[in-house]
Amino acid sequence: MNRLKLKYASVKYVSVASVAALAVLTGPAAAGAGAATPPPAPGAEAPATAAPGTAAPGTPAPVATGTEATGTPAPGAPATAAPRPTLTAKSTASSVRAWQDFHVYGVARHMRPGTRVTLQQLQGKRWVALPASVYTARSGAYNMRVKLGWKGRNSLRIVGGGAVSPVFKVTVR
After folding, report:
1. 77 phi and psi angles, rounded to 5 deg
2. DSSP string of 8-60?
3. Integer angstrom CA distances of residue 100 from 3, 37, 154, 155, 170
4. Residue 80 pLDDT
5. What SS3 class is residue 136?
6. Which of 38, 47, 133, 142 could form a disulfide with 118 if both were Cys (CB 3.0 to 4.6 A apart)?
7. What is the rounded distance in angstroms from the CA atom of residue 147 to the CA atom of residue 99?
8. Beta strand ranges found along 61-160 (DSSP E)
9. Please, which residues have CB within 8 angstroms of residue 150's CB and are 6 or more apart in sequence?
């Protein structure tokens, strides 16, 4: 980006784009009688500008847009934050025999359809991904068949799409 260096002005560096934008915003009406004023020479003080809310005679007052005028964001402004993705998870059985089939099902909300969700098991202090994953349906629902062989009480959860489900437990006997 090209920059002009002004030695004695209060602003040390001014971009060429901002000077052009200032010229477009003020236009010939601000200079009076349609004559354009030359830019200040290096080392000269910049001309004073009118205080906000006041306009020179014969020029239209500034128009408020976006949030100032209506309370809604201006076009191109970022909208409110999207809702956080969430997952629910339930098991069809609370207790199963080793290697017996059961299903884990739930709903993914605020995620794209086809998001991959994976079953995790708490092993010691670490969550380990099990080889059980499915893609969510268009409605956000998912259903996976699971077989567990690790006997005892298993803490399980579903992860995917930046969300983590609440922990549910299945006892393998």
Report:
1. -80, 150
2. SSSSSEEEHHHHHHHHHHHHHHHHSTTPPPPPPPTTSPPPP-PPTT---TTSP
3. 72, 86, 14, 17, 12
4. 81
5. coil
6. 133
7. 5
8. 86-87, 90-91, 95-96, 101-109, 116-123, 126-135, 141-147, 152-160
9. 121, 172
DSSP state of 62: P
Contact 173, 96 (CB under 8 A): yes
- The predicted structure's pLDDT at residue 18: 47
Both tokens of 73, joined, read: 């964001």
**Residue 84, strand partner residues:** none
Contact yes or no for 141/88 (Cβ under 8 A): no
Mean pLDDT of 149-165: 97
| The residue to which tokens 């409110």 are assigned | 80
Nearest of 33, 93, 40, 74 to residue 57 by alpha carbon: 33
17 has a pLDDT exceeding 50: no
**pLDDT tens-digit map of 69-97:** 555 666 666 668 889 999 999 999 999 99
Confidence of residue 6 (pLDDT cuts 50, 70, 90): very low
